[in-house]
């Protein structure tokens, strides 16, 4: 009889990375997003960085990719920039809630698909259309979460350090801002 002990361990790590309050490396994804406001979510620290909203969308996109591949969809792929890194110039309360809900639903769907797998041997199979195994792909989602949770944390710290007025719309942070002009923030 085949076992699925490794799959169950992977599910635990995937869940810990996503929502644990005791992840050993630092904040889980849910913890990192906990106090992000819609205005913070739309902010870009510079013109060549992503916003928190874009990062969350990107994380959701790759969870959906993993789900579709686990389901055996050899044709599914992420081929356009908009499918991978959708732009969110303005994020209101409703949109921010929707972006976060889509991430949560993609997490639930990924875990559900993994729970359906009956044997650890599945992890050794190659992902349709790719040159890596399901084991590598699923661990990639976990590593991806840790990486982006760290980015979100850095963006939050930077935004809070900007000392923006309450009425500020947290628009794009310009690299030529007061920081280059001897401002009070030094």
Description:
Helix 1 (5-19) packs parallel to helix 7, helix 4 runs parallel beside helix 6 and helix 4 runs antiparallel to helix 7 (134-161). The chain has helices at 5-19, 29-33, 38-42, 52-70, 81-84, 93-116, 134-161. The chain is built from 7 helices and no strands. With 186 residues, the chain is mostly helical. The protein is globular, with a radius of gyration of 19 Å. The longest helix has 28 residues, at 134-161. The chain starts with a helix and ends in a 25-residue tail after the last helix. 54% of the residues lie in helices and 0% in strands. The protein has one domain (5-173): Four Helix Bundle (Hemerythrin (Met), subunit A), CATH 1.20.120.450. This is DinB-like domain-containing protein. Residues 31-152 form the DinB-like domain. It comes from Dyadobacter linearis.
